[in-house]
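Lab channel / #folding
Pinned by the channel admin:
"Please post every new chain as: sequence first, then the structure tokens as a reply. Keep commentary short and put observations after the output so the thread stays searchable."

First post following the new format, from NK:
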Amino acid sequence: MLNLHTVLLLVIFQDGVNSNPDNSLHFVNTNYDEKHKDEISIEEEHIKEKQIDKSVKVRERRSATSCSETIQRSMSSPNLYVFLTVSSLGYVSWSGNVSKRNLELNWVLPSSRFAQSGDYIGLFKDDPQSYLGSPVVSVNPNSGSYFLTEEQFPDTSILMLDTELLDQCLFHYWIAYVREDRVLSVNCIKTRPRWMREMKDTLGSVPLHSLMIPGTHNSGSHMKLRGVADDTVWYRYSVNQEEDIWSQLLLGIRYLDLRVSYDSETQKFWLVHDFVPLNPLSGAIQAVKRFLRSTQELVIMDFHRFPAGFKHNTRQRHKELVEYIISELGEFMAPDWLGRTVSLNNLWNLNRTLIVSYENGWVESEYETIWPKVHHAWADTRDTPQLFQFLNRSMELRSEATYLWAAMSHLTPSALDVILNPSGGIRILNNRISRHLSTWYMNMWWDKANIVASDFILSNDIISSTIQGNRKREICRSQSLS
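Reply from TO:
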């Protein structure tokens, strides 16, 4: 039976992509098993975890389990909130014109009766708290909770000097809820290079498995949409992010899901989406190094799959990869003997805030700075209700987990998608769920999730949701100790 990778390969050849030498397939592996037969099911992991430690101590419990139902309900109730997102949709016309990165207005009202006559949601080019000028776009708050604008968010990489990594609103765009010339709520798309360190008193002593950590799915599968060459079936079903690794970290991402292949022709390691090479691993390594030298933030690099170039001479190839990682990042890598109850304070005390996890038992046992794999809760579905049901069940099953696990919050295309809908792709699938994700994690799963990994990170509000979720958990911990 044909899997997605085999079908995509066939379509790519028919599409003529392989005629471009820049897109040559140096390491095609159509036999790669997408399902990961050796992965443990959620239920089996849950049972195993219970057997390992039946008498879980207070410090090892997931923090939110002690939050009373009354407090949980009160903190899940909506407050006035506005935020900007960037649409993941992108198109290239026959004439070569590119439509992409349209700004989206999003708002949450405390109740259906909150809005008054004359209230509006506005998109501004100046901070409305300093100067309330005319909005670029204005929307009646009773018209729904979402509005797609024609304003395009710049797709340039975030340029910041390493000595000036500060929170700042990007590219002069703000959203605000305005009533009678008063700004009731305001927000922007901002950098958050030091948000964990700034929340040291809240996060420092909490085990990492009890924190809510924002991440990206297929973090290395990033590429800008800039023309016809970027809008092929090859890339429509391979690109998961638009922001590069440096930008992801500056925006607040702290978990990177990395898939690596080895290209024997170039003798280099590549970040890939299965068999599709997208970016050299060296670029991600240098971005992480630069970020860690400038901040004291946690970064989790999860080397999760090795689709090609590792089948023959397996141990030597893994050794080569790990020793390259250590040679570049060893000064930041935390030792795994810190154990599963490791906290940010432990990492800060050692001045080692990088955790490298690796999907290979031999590697994990051979190197003390390589951590066990991060467990992925992956629905493998293209259906939004099925994704919700799977993630909701995962939250319940892992509510007391004492290991790092990632809720893979994305839709997965099927082989039929490539055959029947070659003009579709991951951007369109992501657009189906991006607004749902913000709501799910803001109001429902803030007390249960650990790592949250999604596609096209600017298309949702996960980073803000995780920061707010950690603040809510602190209230729960304080309440349980009082």
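NK: The CA atoms of residues 168 and 336 lie 34 Å apart.
TO: also worth noting, Confidence is low (pLDDT under 50) at residues 9-44, 46-65.
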